[in-house]
């Protein structure tokens, strides 16, 4: 029972500590009220939360009516971040910034929802004497010992988020510039006010963690105290077995979501979360424990996510990000026809030069880079255009392959490259897999955000035997290429997730693992030339690719007739052409007009597609 007393002591002290934090920030608010802005939303977001809460209570609102609702706090932050333009001053959480950002300040995390950990209950509001207080947007649970009838249990969602897989480093520099200013301000502020209560919390946690009984619990695998007491959840901090290598190098984040419909946040979607950072251990206690099992579920989750490895973000506001949000130059810029045309020309020249002057390959590469799934009809992912660059030898791939890879990395925000060998297929974890022991979804290589680019380098493929893992992995790749779907492995069942991943294959032309949409024998006529691309040019290309690929598209009725009769004629000339080939031609038409910044197919662009296709087929002979 020693640990239990320790826990009670800890909670009591934590409550005192946050009370002192409260009074400290209350003082600060009074001070700042005199000088100017009422709330320091950046440095003391919880102060703003509390003041709006008190205001709502003072105006006669019943705390019970706040369940699942905003009492004005989120509105305040929305105004602050978007209307007052403070968003760019909010530091982005990453392995660098985590070293200096302070707990209980406002931060942003940009990442992909990798796993959903269910819901968590917490004491959302409680009466402290005659005063209502709230615990929303914080970890530390503080309320008077002994059960209180005046306590409201609320619910929040837990999302496990990771940096977007394959996110290229150039996407980050912008945020660092924006942050630089804030960081300096923050350091200054930090020097001025030493946050005593935070130190206190940390010391307390250490003390608590080193108690022998807690150690013992941890040795038993997890710190689940449910057999001894059902009113507490303790988070172990030393069990790092379940933090994978990738997680060590990049910073994941446990995002706690309030008051949001489930359908709004889905697996693999990319979001920016703005909220309150907490790094200290969660200690939750609940006297009115009516539903033990719901607590037990979360307990186990959190034990495997030590807060010093996985910071928590109590989300005030989230917004979905798309590729444009990762660019530096403003994506809001109207794509002017002349500008688009020039950018297209210069990008095409660049692609031609890295492809050893193979103009046809460069044109197809451009269309490929612009492709995306824009509709699903029955089982067909419309708009995808995977490209298979064949006839690359082991030697040429070391030159051209590297150039292509580097170039794609520089152009698109999220890129991955997999070396397709028999050994790779036999050993890789391509599909995400549910681990019921830890209740986590173990990421697989193919758990990717929409708009990711994947290079598959087949040139190292040797003959060998695929075992059952290899066969399964080959099947996963084939399904991704054909249907843009990935089957997630839930052990007892498979769950099919739709994807939007552009796939580029570099091959020698021997295997037959996955059929790409377009095969083009690569015919370089010169060495790959290495060119230094000015930063502005690079940014223009990124902006071009991100902007024109999202353009809408239509085919006017007169063009529709032309296209139809062309397709019929093509079919008559070559009986082997299937529906897929025809739909691929339409996709190429769409991409060709998009590449010129146009939204409806013109005769000129359609003819360009037909000519390109004729040249490609000639090469295949
Ligand atoms: C941040 O500011 C410092 C000094 O003001 C400057 O030297 C540094 O280059 C800046 N860093 C970034 C990423 O802008
Ligand atoms: C397949 O082969 C790899 C490497 O040879 C091995 O590590 C793996 O366990 C094998 N898998 C199966 C299911 O046999
Ligand atoms: C690429 O093309 C070559 C030659 O047609 C073929 O052997 C290989 O299987 C293709 N790979 C993919 C992924 O389509």
Automatic annotation (TrEMBL):
PANTHER family: MINI-CHROMOSOME MAINTENANCE COMPLEX-BINDING PROTEIN
Region (Disordered): 214-235
Keywords: Nucleus, Signal
GO biological process, one term: sister chromatid cohesion
Main location: nucleus
GO molecular function: chromatin binding
Source organism: Citrus clementina
Subcellular location: Nucleus
Residue ranges, compositional bias (Polar residues): 223-235
Superkingdom of this protein's organism: Eukaryota
Record protein name field: Mini-chromosome maintenance complex-binding protein
Signal peptide: 1-19
GO CC terms: nucleus
Keyword match Amino-acid biosynthesis: no
């Amino acid at each position: 029972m020693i640990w239990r007393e320790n826990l009670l002591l800890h909670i009591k002290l934590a409550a005192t500590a946050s009370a002192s934090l409260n009074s400290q920030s209350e003082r600060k608010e009074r001070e700042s009220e005199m000088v100017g802005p009422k709330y320091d939303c950046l440095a003391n977001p919880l102060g703003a939360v509390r003041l709006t809460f008190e205001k709502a209570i003072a105006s006669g609102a019943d705390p019970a009516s706040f369940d699942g609702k905003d009492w004005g706090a989120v509105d305040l932050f929305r105004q602050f971040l978007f209307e007052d333009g403070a968003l760019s001053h909010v530091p982005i959480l990453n392995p660098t910034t985590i070293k200096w950002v302070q707990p209980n300040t406002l931060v942003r995390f940009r990442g992909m929802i990798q796993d959903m950990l269910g819901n968590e209950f917490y004491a959302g509001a409680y009466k402290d004497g005659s005063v209502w207080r709230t615990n929303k947007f914080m970890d530390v649970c503080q309320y008077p010992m002994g059960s209180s009838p005046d306590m409201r249990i609320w619910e929040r969602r837990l999302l496990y988020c990771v940096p977007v897989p394959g996110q290229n480093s150039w996407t980050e520099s912008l945020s660092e510039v924006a942050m630089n200013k804030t960081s300096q301000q923050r350091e200054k502020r930090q020097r001025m006010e030493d946050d005593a209560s935070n130190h206190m919390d940390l010391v307390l946690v250490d003390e608590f963690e080193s108690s022998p009984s807690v150690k013992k619990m941890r040795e038993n695998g997890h710190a689940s105290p449910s057999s001894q007491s059902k009113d507490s959840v303790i988070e172990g901090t030393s069990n790092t077995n379940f933090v994978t290598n990738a997680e060590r190098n990049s910073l994941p984040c446990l995002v706690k979501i309030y008051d949001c419909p489930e359908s709004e946040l889905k697996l693999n979607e990319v979001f920016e979360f703005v909220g309150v950072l907490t790094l200290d251990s969660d200690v939750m206690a609940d006297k009115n424990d009516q539903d033990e099992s719901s607590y037990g579920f979360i307990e186990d989750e959190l034990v495997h996510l030590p807060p010093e490895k996985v910071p928590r973000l109590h989300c005030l506001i989230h917004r979905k990000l798309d590729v444009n949000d990762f660019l530096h130059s403003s994506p809001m810029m109207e794509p002017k026809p002349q500008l688009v045309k020039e950018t297209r020309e210069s990008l095409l020249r660049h692609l031609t030069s890295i492809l050893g002057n193979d103009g046809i390959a460069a044109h197809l590469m451009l269309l490929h880079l612009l492709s995306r799934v824009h509709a699903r009809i029955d089982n067909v992912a419309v708009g995808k255009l995977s490209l298979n660059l064949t006839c690359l030898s082991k030697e040429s791939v070391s030159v051209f392959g590297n150039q292509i890879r580097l170039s794609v990395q520089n152009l698109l925000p999220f890129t991955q490259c997999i070396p397709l060998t028999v050994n790779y297929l036999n050993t890789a974890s391509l599909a995400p897999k549910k681990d019921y022991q830890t209740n986590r979804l173990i990421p697989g290589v193919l758990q990717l955000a929409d708009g990711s680019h994947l290079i598959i380098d087949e040139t190292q493929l040797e003959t060998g035997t695929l075992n059952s893992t290899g066969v399964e992995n080959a099947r996963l790749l084939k399904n991704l290429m054909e249907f843009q779907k990935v089957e997630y492995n839930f052990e007892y069942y498979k769950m099919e997730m739709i994807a939007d991943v552009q796939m580029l294959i570099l091959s020698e032309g021997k295997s037959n693992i996955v059929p790409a949409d377009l095969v083009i024998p690569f015919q370089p006529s010169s060495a790959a030339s290495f060119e230094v691309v000015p930063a502005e040019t690079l940014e223009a290309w990124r902006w071009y690719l991100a902007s024109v690929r999202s353009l809408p598209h239509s085919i006017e009725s007169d063009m529709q007739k032309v296209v139809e009769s062309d397709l019929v004629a093509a079919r008559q000339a070559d009986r082997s052409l299937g529906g897929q080939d025809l739909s691929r031609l339409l996709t190429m038409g769409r991409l060709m007009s998009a590449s010129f910044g146009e939204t409806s197919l013109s005769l000129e662009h359609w003819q360009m597609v037909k000519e390109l296709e004729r040249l490609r087929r000639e090469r295949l002979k």
